[in-house]
Specification:
Residues 33-188, 218-360 form the Sodium/calcium exchanger membrane region domain. One of its GO terms (cellular component) is plasma membrane. It is a multi-pass membrane protein. It comes from Roseateles oligotrophus. With 362 residues, the protein is mostly helical. The protein has a single domain, classed as A middle domain of Talin 1 (Up-down Bundle), CATH 1.20.1420.30. 73% of the residues lie in helices and 1% in strands. The chain has twelve helices and two strands. The chain has helices at residues 11-27, 34-62, 66-89, 97-125, 132-151, 166-190, 212-246, 252-275, 279-295, 297-305, 318-335, 342-360, and strands at 128-129, 339-340. A two-stranded antiparallel ribbon has the order 1-2. α2 packs across α8. The longest helix has 35 residues, at 212-246. It starts with 10 loop residues before the first helix and ends with a helix.
Length: 362
């Protein structure tokens, strides 16, 4: 769902792409000091936020369903760039980074974002409403994609370890793309009304689209942001891995960091919608982000893995499988009634805290 956007672009969305490109050109492959690492990190976060904003501007101009596809592709490029950059720079264990990032995205979406939005909405309005017709199919797609790409590899026998063979990986990627494509069609065309707020209002339906010059400028700035994100991620990759190893944390924490960064814009938008008593919009953003994270990222990383030296590890550990099962079980109970309270939000946030704790202390 594309958010209502101002006619003029905020000044920070103009500065962030220029800053990211300038740092990338100026620093090159230089060794980064502590203060430069901090500056590059801030520029990377700003570039991610600006990229999503400019993608929304262009998406609002072109309309649905191309708009949602453009948003998803932009976010996927960012996520894949971060994953591949760290995989290329990493050593042992980096071949599981895609799995860790996608699993982290699911936990953040289903427990962190959903729990926080329900809690905030419940505190402010006592009870929040949403449409089961929209949340149930979205959750069904997310469950199917998660099991297909993160659980099955631990049980297949064609390749050693929790991996897919090349044929299996190609099939899983094609199936993921198909499911994502059908979901986008249903959400934006065939059954769009299922995903509107429970009161039937569509705050974006009458929002005037940006002018052609503004949309073209956003398109140029979006491309600049994506190039900046890819380049800055490559610069930061060694420092991120070194910092995690020095802290004594498992390498899976890197996947949590990537997922938190990529999902930051959608999290902020979902929280704003929940505070305005539009939980349906929050759930659309959250579940849609999770579906895109698997449905587009896994096929993209799968194709790139053919050119990487190590096999792509996708299968989850038994602990993470149990956490995934618990998350989807609780999610089914929460999203199956059409109404939620602070208790539902609290349960999801506790599960999110469990996920974060086990990521650091497995």
């Amino acid at each position: 769902m594309i958010k209502k956007l101002p006619a003029a672009l905020p000044i920070w969305t103009l500065i962030a792409p220029v800053l990211a490109a300038g740092l990338l050109l100026g620093l090159g492959a230089a060794n980064l000091s502590a203060w430069l690492l901090g500056l590059v990190s801030l520029a990377l976060v700003a570039a991610v936020l600006a990229a999503v904003h400019h993608a929304e501007v262009v998406a609002h101009r072109v309309g649905e369903p191309l708009g949602s596809l453009l948003l998803a592709v932009a976010v996927t490029v960012i996520e894949v760039a971060l994953i591949v950059s760290l995989m290329l720079a990493g050593g042992e264990g980096s071949n599981a980074l895609a799995r860790d990032t996608v699993f982290s995205a699911i936990m953040i979406v289903c427990n962190g974002i959903v729990g926080l939005c329900i809690l905030l909405g419940g505190v402010r309005y006592k009870e929040v409403a949403f449409k089961v017709e929209g949340t149930s199919p979205a959750l069904a797609v997310l469950v199917a994609l998660s099991v297909l790409t993160l659980v099955l590899p631990s049980f297949t026998t064609s390749s050693p370890g929790p991996t897919f063979s090349n044929a299996q990986l190609a099939f899983a990627g094609a199936a993921s793309l198909l499911l994502y494509g059908v979901f986008v069609f249903v959400q934006t065309v065939r059954h769009r009304d299922y995903f509107l707020p429970a009161d039937g209002a569509d705050g974006d339906a009458h929002a005037p689209p940006p002018s052609t010059p503004v949309a073209l400028l956003s398109l140029v700035l979006l491309m600049t942001c994506l190039v900046g994100v890819v380049g800055l991620a490559k610069l930061l990759a060694p420092a991120i891995e070194a910092g995690v190893r020095q802290a004594g944390a498992p390498l899976a924490v890197v996947g949590v960091i990537i997922a938190l960064l990529v999902l930051l814009p959608e999290t902020l938008a979902a929280v704003r919608a929940a505070r305005a008593n539009r939980l349906q919009t929050s759930l659309n953003l959250a579940l849609g982000s999770g579906i895109a994270s698997i449905g587009l990222t896994v096929p993209a990383v799968g194709v790139l893995s053919f050119f990487l030296p190590q096999a792509l590890v996708l299968g989850l550990s038994p602990t993470h499988m149990i956490l995934l099962l618990l998350t989807f079980g609780v999610g089914t109970l929460t999203l199956g009634t059409g109404r939620a309270t602070v208790l539902h939000g609290a349960v999801h946030l506790v599960l999110f805290a469990v996920f974060l704790f086990l990521a650091v202390v497995p």
